[in-house]
Write a structure and sequence with these properties.
128 residues, mainly alpha, 2 domains
């Protein structure tokens, strides 16, 4: 029997559902992070006594920087998921971009935006 070269439409639909669930959660998390950065989440120092306000503002700046990094990372994750949806529409989802072989479904269920098989990822890390 010949080796599979792509996932069936039914399998692609299963992966699409997984990605849509993760995308919804990721977008919600991203929205919360951006609200926190803008200060629209109601969690600021406006109602703090002046004595502690200076210290809290410094901590707030550090917190905003960290929140900004988390938001950037979340946005990258969202873009990866959206790219996976494009690959599903193109029926090229789940094909390793290095080896050209199918990425195992277990890996795609865990990391649905993966574009590399474990072997290709390990080889990439060795080269660095």
């Amino acid at each position: 029997m010949a080796e599979k070269t792509r996932y069936s439409d039914e399998e692609l639909e299963e992966f699409r559902a997984i990605i849509m669930d993760k995308l919804e959660l990721a977008q919600r998390d991203y929205d919360l992070l951006t609200q926190s950065i803008r200060g629209t989440d109601g969690n600021n120092t406006d109602d703090t006594s002046p004595t502690y306000k200076v210290l809290e503002d410094g901590a707030s700046t550090l917190s905003k920087e960290e929140t900004g990094r988390l938001a950037q990372r979340q946005l990258k994750f969202i873009q990866g998921l959206e790219g996976a949806l494009v690959r599903i529409r193109n029926k090229s989802y789940g094909i390793c971009r290095v080896t050209g072989k199918l990425i195992p479904p277990e890996r795609l269920r865990a990391v649905p935006h993966a574009t590399l098989s474990i072997e290709a990822k390990m080889d990439d890390r060795k080269r660095r």
